[in-house]
Amino acid sequence: MNRDWIATARTLSEALPYMQRYSGAVVVVKFGGNAMGDDDAMAEFARDIVLMKQVGIHPVVCHGGGPMINDLLGKLGIESRFVRGKRVTTRETVEVVEMVLSGLVNKRIVQAINDAGGRAVGISGKDDDLMVCEPDDPELGFVGRPVEMNVQIIRDLYNAGLIPVIAPVATGMEDNETFNVNGDTAAGAIAGALRADRLLLLTDVSGVKGGSGEVLTQIHPDQVRAMIADGTIAGGMIPKTETALKALDEGVRAVVILDGRVPNACLLELFTEHGAGSLIRSTDPRVKPRGLRQGDSGL
Ligand SMILES: Nc1ncnc2c1ncn2[C@@H]1O[C@H](COP(=O)(O)OP(=O)(O)O)[C@@H](O)[C@H]1O
Ligand SMILES: CC(=O)N[C@@H](CCC(=O)OP(=O)(O)O)C(=O)O
């Protein structure tokens, strides 16, 4: 027999304990615009999500799309400006943000998941008032900070066998305003409100790097705080790790920051001993560990 088939069968067999451990788990996956890549990479991501659903996990996809917003704004002659990793969003910009995120990007992901045999439903933070926001910072304009989460719609969708795909656009508390929410912030708020078992933040680096540039495979929340304070964590990694800490405070069991450009990144993290990227886990003794990596004291 061809040896590759034996290896394939062994790989599947080795994944069994991980599949059992995660059965029924809620896994929120943040799919960033930089991690999306070409159609092949999108199709591969979609297969990973469908496989997760097939083995009894409830995947919840929350996406970004910053580079795609930049493209359309550029075509319209509108300049993109960011302050501390967040887009300065005018009334004019927020219309483009909603068109790109709720339209183009959301439906591209929905279509890819459906093509892979899943049943995806695309919504935004506006649907069923999933995410209600207040202005984040006057300097940023129509950028929202989630203050009220109504996640029953997500539970209804995943319990019905569907895969929610969420665009980070939300309603304001007043005047039916539309707010642009950073994708990491939205994914963290959704994972926190769901008390998710895992929040996977897919990005374009292999994880959180320490002082000498090495990727840290497991990080204590206190170490993350120290690395933000001493500048080891900088730029776009600041909102990402702050999101991770907040989500852990809200009851998420563990957050993993990993490279979404690596083939089958989600499967590598969930179903192999190796794992992927940097895992930051809850230190709250009331949050029961589930499916942590081999060798972790909480396993
Ligand atoms: N300690 C660190 N470890 C890893 N990346 C870091 C660190 N400090 C800053 N960064 C930067 O953060 C970036 C990831 O944030 P960002 O580009 O906003 O991701 P995304 O677009 O996927 O949301 C990396 O590409 C890297 O340049
Ligand atoms: C407030 C804010 O910055 N919103 C983001 C929303 C998209 C996003 O977060 O996309 P990525 O995950 O691909 O970066 C933006 O306008 O770019």
From TrEMBL:
Primary localisation category: cytoplasm
Gene3D superfamilies cross-referenced by the UniProt entry: Acetylglutamate kinase-like
Annotated pathway: Amino-acid biosynthesis; L-arginine biosynthesis; N(2)-acetyl-L-ornithine from L-glutamate: step 2/4
GO MF annotation list: acetylglutamate kinase activity
Aspartate/glutamate/uridylate kinase domain ranges (all copies): 26-258
Organism domain of life: Bacteria
SUPFAM superfamilies noted in UniProt: Carbamate kinase-like
Annotated substrate binding sites: G65, G66, R87, N180
E.C. no: 2.7.2.8
Catalytic activity reported: N-acetyl-L-glutamate + ATP = N-acetyl-L-glutamyl 5-phosphate + ADP
Keyword Kinase assigned: yes
Keywords of the record: Amino-acid biosynthesis, Arginine biosynthesis, ATP-binding, Cytoplasm, Kinase, Nucleotide-binding, Transferase
Function: Catalyzes the ATP-dependent phosphorylation of N-acetyl-L-glutamate.
NCBIfam families per UniProt: argB
Protein family membership: Belongs to the acetylglutamate kinase family. ArgB subfamily.
Protein name according to UniProt: Acetylglutamate kinase
Species for this entry: Paracoccus methylovorus
Lineage: Bacteria, Pseudomonadati, Pseudomonadota, Alphaproteobacteria, Rhodobacterales
Gene: argB
